[in-house]
Amino acid sequence: MEGSPSSKSASKPSWLERISALLMREPEDREQLVELLHSAYERNLMDADALAMIEGVLQVSDLRAGDIMVPRSQIDAIDIDDPISEFMPMVLETAHSRFPVFEGDRDQVQGILLAKDLLRYFVDPDNFDLRDMLRPVVFIPESKRLNVLLKEFRSNRNHMAVVVDEYGGVAGLVTIEDVIEQIVGDIEDEYDFDETEDNLVQERDGSWRVKAVTEIEDFNETLSLNLPDDEFDTIGGLVVNQFGHVPKRGETVSAFGLLFEVVRADSRRVHTLLVTRQQADTTGQSGE
Fold first, then answer.
1. Cβ distance 209 to 274 under 8 Å?
2. What is the pLDDT of residue 268?
3. pLDDT at 180 over 70
4. Label partner for 21 (CA 20 to 30 A): which of 125, 183, 265, 279?
């Protein structure tokens, strides 16, 4: 019957057909493609998660290992000469599945230890040899593109690579999870903030959205505070120390008269914080 609901639904184009029609404009470069994708989002042809994931796929080919690596100073590594009883608390606290093992200094990485292999120690501690447990380590340059690295991770079944600088020294660490998080990691409506040049952006309610890499000196100057910078250089380092662990998205901590909320973080570091004043007079001293 003409005009029936069934005939109307049959003639209604699917979301895929609508997006295809939108893309028929044939973008000439990536910038135009991104504009079309944002246009599709604004027309409710895709949700924010889908848009962010597609943009993540496009960005991965432009990023390099050095852009996302965990820096050398933040690597949780094991000294091969340390007794297991000495580094076991760190293994339990960080809850990582893999740890680089060095000998002498951190530039001399001997291999990768899987946390599960430590179970062998508790079964037969007298015959346990840490060197025998090490898996081969993969070294990559800081310039390695993430799309190539992800392909190598998949083909070689590796999950971790040590990033080295031009002199062969250890510059950082990158895992397959770090790469995948660039695509499907923490998705939020404010993801565009990470692309801005400003490290501190004030919200309408008076709170501040702050990148974790912001220097404490700059943070103090902008918010007229006096947070200590003798032990940590960045606001992220100071806040993680207050947590006592690498916090997850949504976790909060009160310190220095401020409330810090983690807006974006991955398994190894904090990226973005939301900072709210808890009292009018903030002296920079930690409040109990």
1. yes
2. 66
3. yes
4. 183
Average pLDDT over residues 150-176: 92
Strand partners, 258: 255, 277
Top-confidence range, 19-28, 192-201, 220-229, 260-269: 220-229
Residue 26 DSSP one-character state: -
Coil/strand/helix, residue 146: helix
pLDDT score recorded for residue 24: 56
Output the pTM of the full model. 0.56
Residue 138 phi, psi (nearest 5): -105, 125
**14 against 228, higher pLDDT:** 228
CA distance 223 to 199: 13
Rounded CA gap, 134 and 148, in Å? 25
Mean pLDDT estimate for the chain: 82
Phi-psi region of 60 (alpha: psi -120 to 50; beta: other; left: phi over 0): alpha
The DSSP bridge pattern shows strands 170-175 and 98-103 to be: unpaired
CB 174 within 8 A of CB 145: no
CA distances from 9 to 3, 4, 14, 18, 45 (A): 10, 9, 10, 14, 17
What are the DSSP E strand ranges found in the chain? 70-71, 78-79, 98-103, 105-114, 139-141, 160-164, 170-175, 200-202, 208-211, 252-255, 258-265, 270-277
